[in-house]
Amino acid sequence: MTLSGGTYGGDKDMFPYLPWTKDMRKAYCGKHYNIQPRDTELRTEYWGGDLQATSNIIYSNGLLDPWHDGGILKNVSDTIVAVTIKDGAHHLDLRASDPRDPQSVIVARQQEVELIRQFVKKATTVKQR
To answer: Which of 27, 74, 80, 87 is the most exposed place for a label (fewest CB within 10 A)?
Structure first.
């Protein structure tokens, strides 16, 4: 199972710059462990590709979160939606708002609220029929 790697350094994080690409990871694992990483294992293990029977799910992924590669990054359907947040970190969109929030997080929160409104409206409309 693999996730993204590397660090950006400078003002992007607290670590020194260290590139770590998928190709570098594959070469390292092949050389040291005689295996090839399975880039899709996280999605396979946790149902990432088999979501058609579900609905009303929002997958938010902050691209600054190293775990985002294991997330759902594209819409699966109209009601299984991926919200990708350029300047978001782990769960930043789920925390209370802060004046320092990046614009991409503010927009993501607005999008999530609108999606939830749509889900609730559709559910209550269907129930009233």
So the answer is: 74
Burial class (CB in 10 A: 0-12, 13-18, 19+), 72: buried
In which element (H, E) is residue 59 found?
A: strand 57-62
pTM value?
0.66
In the structure encoding, which two tokens stand for residue 91, read together?
Answer: 């769960």
Cβ atoms 61, 71 nearer than 8 A:
yes
- Tens of pLDDT along the chain (129 residues) come to 555 566 666 676 677 777 778 888 889 889 999 998 877 776 666 655 566 778 899 999 999 887 787 788 899 889 999 999 999 988 899 999 999 999 999 999 999 999 999 999 998 887 666
Kindly list the distances between the CA atom of residue 76 and the CA atoms of 3, 27, 63, 81, 94, in Å, as whole numbers in the listed order.
21, 32, 19, 6, 21
